[in-house]
Specification:
The protein is an alpha/beta fold. It is about 40% helix and about 15% strand. Strands 1, 2, 3, 4, 5 and 8 form a 6-stranded parallel beta sheet that branches. A 3-stranded parallel beta sheet has the order 9-10-11. Strands 6-7 form a two-stranded antiparallel sheet.
């Protein structure tokens, strides 16, 4: 079963470990994901996020550029196995040449500092997807936040945020609403025309975490032709889970079944969040992904449905956008 994964934080992890003096690379490492693990599971494409934490990073733009540079260097060293893609045709060429694909995203729109010229330059560097926010307010908008012990969902996009989503659609950068507030989701829904995505978000009806999607959001996303990627983090899968609890496939199946019932099979993809989650994972790493496909078949999903979730839905979205 081919695999397209919407989201991992491997590149920022690699960079930080290299900065601390560790001899580590993308070909083979101790993280959730490397090229050898990807090949073992028959990956077609991995979306590599340049993830920046505004709460602890005082040079977000410089860090994001460094992560992108590292991805390019690692791909160049392994160019016979993987290639960076800029459009759908590049994916097809890599498939023809029996190579995996890497697509570049940014997880934290704040790296652009509200400056559209930076957004355009990131596009020129190969960025084809971006979350508007991570877990902090930035120049573009707000995440769902707990303020004074109250959950605040109703602060959406700022003026710059509306300008950014218009330019992202013009350029062909996929808008990613994972981490964005509920109000921000609807701002995007009501002010865009193309499909957008929630690269690593689950169903809030099954697990009530504020990072997950409500049933109405899932319906609206499906109607627009978007895709949401199943996140493997235990706290987004089970209401009773803690950071120390294992992420379990049974919980993943519960989310997939619910999302299918609400939005249809075409709205579901994979968004593992590998190397961005700190819980133990029943699917230990990228080399073990096929056990989820087998589990889904045992739970009644057809081969065609598993194919849609594992790669076809995201691939169709890339083709359209």
């Amino acid at each position: 079963m081919k695999i397209v994964d919407f989201h991992c934080d491997t590149i920022s992890q690699l960079y930080d470990l290299k900065q601390s003096g560790e001899n580590i690379n993308l070909k083979e490492n101790k993280l959730h994901l490397d090229l050898n693990k990807m090949k073992k599971s028959d990956y077609m494409l991995q979306v590599f996020a340049s993830y920046v934490d505004l709460g602890s990073n005082n040079k977000p733009l410089e860090s994001c550029l460094s992560y992108i540079d590292l991805l390019y260097k690692e791909v160049e060293k392994n160019k016979n196995e993987i290639g960076i893609v800029y459009n759908y045709e590049d994916i097809l060429k890599n498939i023809e040449n029996k190579k995996m694909s890497a697509l570049l995203s940014i997880e934290e729109g704040g790296v652009c500092k509200g400056n559209l010229s930076l957004l355009r330059n990131f596009y020129r560097l190969g960025v084809r997807m971006m979350t508007l926010t991570w877990n902090y307010e930035n120049e573009l908008g707000f995440p769902n936040e707990i303020i004074d012990d109250k959950l605040v969902l109703d602060r959406g996009l700022k003026k710059s945020g509306f300008e950014f989503i218009e330019e992202m659609e013009n350029l062909g950068i996929i808008i990613d609403v994972s981490h964005l507030s509920d109000a921000g989701f609807y701002d995007i829904l009501n002010n865009t025309k193309k499909p957008f995505v929630a690269s690593h978000s689950n169903a809030r009806s099954i697990c009530g975490h504020r990072r997950n999607m409500t049933d109405d959001m899932i319906k609206k996303l499906a109607h627009r032709g978007g895709v949401m990627g199943l996140n493997f983090y235990s706290c987004f899968l089970n209401n009773n889970a803690t950071d120390d609890d294992m992420s379990k496939m049974d919980d993943m199946i519960n989310h997939i079944k619910h999302i299918k019932n609400i939005g249809g099979i075409e709205v579901i993809g994979l968004g593992s969040d590998f190397d961005g989650i700190d819980c133990k994972v029943e699917i230990e790493n990228a080399s073990k992904m096929q056990i989820l496909a087998e589990k889904m078949k045992k739970e009644g999903f057809t081969e065609k449905e598993v194919e849609h979730i594992f790669y076809k839905n995201v691939l169709n979205l890339f083709k359209e956008i």
